[in-house]
Amino acid sequence: MSQRVPVRIRVNGVTHELDVEPRLLLVHALRDKLGLTGTHVGCDTSNCGACTVHLDGRAVKSCTVLAVQADGAEVTTIEGLGTPDSLHPVQEAFWEHHGLQCGYCTPGMIMAAADLLQRNPNPTEEDVRRALEGNLCRCTGYHNIVKAIMSAAESGRGSISEPSPSQEGREAAEAFAQEGLGA
Ligand code: FES
Ligand code: FES
Prior knowledge:
By secondary structure, the chain is an alpha+beta fold. The chain has 7 helices and 5 strands.
């Protein structure tokens, strides 16, 4: 049996204590231990960006981070960015501008865009395209993705900081953790 390491990670406002193998990637901890399957795995080469989350407020590819490296950190996934009743401004802009086709790359695109707009609320189209260089869309829907992000920026919506998770989201995550799936 391989050695396990205790880690404590705050995800979408909820603290989780996990015992993980040192080799476990953050993306697998999120998906398989915490049930947060909105974070996707789209490659095994760290190229696609489908696994992008925020780690202490900055976008990272969670397939390039070990869960043990996230010990003590704050992680936000697509599930923590908004709720169906209260979308994050970038989610709303993707909805309005049809910034997706199959949707597989969308969580990563939105997390990368939200990070860009927090750092640069008034990006040029060039800035947006550069910020998305690490995120691939196999449906090649880049035009509407860029349009959505520019729209969020132009309306000032993108400068809204990351929301704290809703009470509803927090309760759902806590219930999930209590079922033993988070341990
Ligand atoms: Fe992480 Fe593709 S799954 S970059
Ligand atoms: Fe299909 Fe981007 S919408 S991969």
